[in-house]
């Protein structure tokens, strides 16, 4: 027998009505919540075909839509942050929501085996690897690498004196040798053709290109990841790169472990990982890739920043002269600069800050991913949005840096009460873990170069100086370098060459 209750039926009907009203209200709220403004796109593809090379310049032009710009790309939401306030409000103050990384199929998953902690998702593996890197490179112990950095600065200055035509190769060798010594306690690498450098630099170049937004269609049409390797050369190549470099990073890590087993008192990042393996909870493969990530994150960016330094000295010779005047006043001409001079060289420190502000080496940083729906300035930022910080626009914002924001002017950093600084190292929990070491390397390299050398433009057959244009910068993926250019490095005073050569002999 079937019984029915008018009360229960009415209650059920009421529940359904209430539920429908709530759902309608929620969906209505979503509809009413406006997405941030942005440029119009086309059906299905959205703004995909507007993601051109040197896209940070186009993003900057879209500041007319506001500080937060919305793009739709093949059904995916992309948010561009065009000023520091928006970046701080979201990436710093709401870090728990914005610390994830978007899926990066080629660079992170295939080439990196989901072990490059700068690119992997926000989770336990990332926390363990990031914590180990932060402890090994934190500001309070960064000074332990000063001897390595000073040695390499002296070698770099000597190389520029004896073979100035290969200046870019010297910058790359120096940055690579510093990182290798810091991470693996290797001897100084004296040639840019050393296999240790060429192998890893090849991988670095591939990674930074693969990580650039839009570099591979599979990042937007993710079904392509399931294509068989025989039909997808990009996938086959990425997996082969992982196989080669997985063996390389583990081999370098094992060399440190074997030296320690033979009672070698190694002082390096890898030695710290081995000593504190229980504390960090990393297995040996994770440790090997954590170490490898420091090389990937440090070598290309440091050499690129040094190249922008050379570029700026050519473009703004008055800055070069003022820095050299400070070096002469504080150090004189009988010895080369050391880290002991750091506090006495405020203009030199300001110059380094300005290099990083004026030409941020990664003008789009590395994208973040939003974990859940968020609202900012009355606009909905949908869950899963890829959030890109336009470092170029942020570091050249005239509302922050004044009407001369496009000029290279270290004086803007000399006011003791000024909090200008720069944002070249990123925001939030994903801020560059090696920023303190990078600042130290840039300081000691640039100070030694300017102490010993005059950097002058190359002149054509008619004696006219050739200054490269800023708009010719090379888009090398997430890392951007100035165009290749010729310049002259000449000793500043008669005894400079001899002093550099003698100092080099003391640190070999």
Automatic annotation (TrEMBL):
Keywords: Glycoprotein, Heme, Iron, Membrane, Metal-binding, Monooxygenase, Oxidoreductase, Transmembrane, Transmembrane helix. One of its GO terms (cellular component) is membrane. Its cofactor is heme. CDD domains: CYP64-like. InterPro entries: Cyt_P450, Cyt_P450_CS, Cyt_P450_E_grp-I, Cyt_P450_sf, Cytochrome_P450_fung. GO terms for molecular function: heme binding; iron ion binding; monooxygenase activity; oxidoreductase activity, acting on paired donors, with incorporation or reduction of molecular oxygen. It comes from the Eukaryota. The chain crosses the membrane at residues 12-28. PANTHER family: CYTOCHROME P450 MONOOXYGENASE ALNH-RELATED (PTHR46300:SF2), P450, PUTATIVE (EUROFUNG)-RELATED-RELATED (PTHR46300). Heme binds at residue 432. It is a single-pass membrane protein. Belongs to the cytochrome P450 family. Gene3D superfamilies: Cytochrome P450. Pathway: Secondary metabolite biosynthesis. The keyword Transcription does not apply. This is Cytochrome P450. Coiled coil: none annotated. It comes from Mycena venus. It is found in: Membrane.
């Amino acid at each position: 027998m079937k019984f029915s209750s008018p009360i229960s039926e009415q209650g059920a009907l009421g529940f359904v009505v209430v539920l429908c009203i709530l759902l309608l209200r929620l969906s209505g709220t979503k509809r009413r919540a406006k997405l941030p403004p942005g440029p119009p796109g086309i059906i299905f593809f959205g703004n995909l075909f507007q993601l051109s090379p040197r896209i940070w310049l186009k993003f900057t032009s879209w500041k007319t839509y506001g500080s937060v710009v919305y793009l739709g790309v093949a059904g995916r939401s992309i948010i561009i942050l065009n000023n520091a306030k928006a970046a701080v409000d979201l990436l710093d103050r709401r870090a728990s929501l914005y610390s994830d990384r978007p899926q990066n199929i080629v660079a992170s998953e295939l080439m990196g085996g989901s072990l490059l902690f700068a690119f992997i998702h926000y989770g336990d593996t990332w926390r363990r690897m990031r914590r180990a890197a932060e402890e090994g490179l934190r500001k309070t112990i960064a000074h332990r690498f000063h001897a390595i950095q000073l040695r390499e600065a002296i070698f770099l200055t000597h190389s520029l004196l004896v073979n100035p035509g290969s200046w870019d190769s010297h910058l790359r060798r120096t940055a690579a040798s510093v990182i290798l010594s810091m991470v693996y306690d290797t001897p100084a690498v004296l040639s840019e053709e050393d296999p240790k450098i060429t192998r890893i630099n090849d991988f670095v170049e591939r990674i930074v290109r693969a990580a650039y937004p839009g570099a591979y269609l599979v990042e937007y049409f993710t079904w392509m990841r399931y294509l068989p390797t025989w039909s997808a050369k990009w996938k086959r190549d990425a997996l082969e790169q992982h196989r080669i470099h997985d063996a390389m990073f583990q081999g370098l890590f094992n060399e440190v472990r074997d030296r320690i087993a033979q009672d070698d008192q190694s002082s390096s990042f890898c030695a710290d990982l081995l000593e504190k393996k229980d504390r960090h909870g990393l297995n040996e493969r994770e440790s090997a890739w954590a170490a490898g990530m420091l090389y990937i994150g440090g070598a290309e960016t440091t050499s690129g920043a040094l190249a922008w330094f050379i570029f700026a000295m050519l473009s703004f010779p008055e800055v070069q002269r003022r820095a050299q005047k400070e070096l002469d006043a504080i150090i004189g001409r009988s010895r080369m600069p050391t880290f002991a001079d750091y506090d006495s060289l405020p203009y030199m420190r300001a110059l380094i800050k300005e290099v990083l502000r004026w030409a941020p080496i990664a003008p789009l940083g590395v994208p973040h991913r939003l974990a859940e729906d968020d609202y900012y300035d009355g606009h909905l930022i949908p869950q899963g949005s890829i959030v890109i910080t336009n470092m170029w626009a942020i570091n050249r914002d005239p509302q922050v840096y004044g009407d001369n924001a496009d000029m290279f002017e270290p004086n803007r950093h000399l006011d003791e009460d000024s909090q200008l600084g720069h944002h070249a190292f990123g925001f939030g929990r994903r801020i560059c873990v090696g920023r303190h070491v990078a600042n130290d390397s840039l300081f000691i390299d640039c100070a030694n170069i300017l102490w010993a050398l005059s950097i002058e433009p190359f002149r054509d057959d008619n004696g006219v100086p050739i200054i490269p244009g800023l708009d010719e910068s090379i888009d090398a993926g997430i890392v951007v370098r100035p165009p290749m250019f010729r310049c002259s490095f000449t000793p500043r005073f008669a005894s400079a060459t001899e002093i550099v050569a003698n100092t080099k002999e003391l640190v070999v």
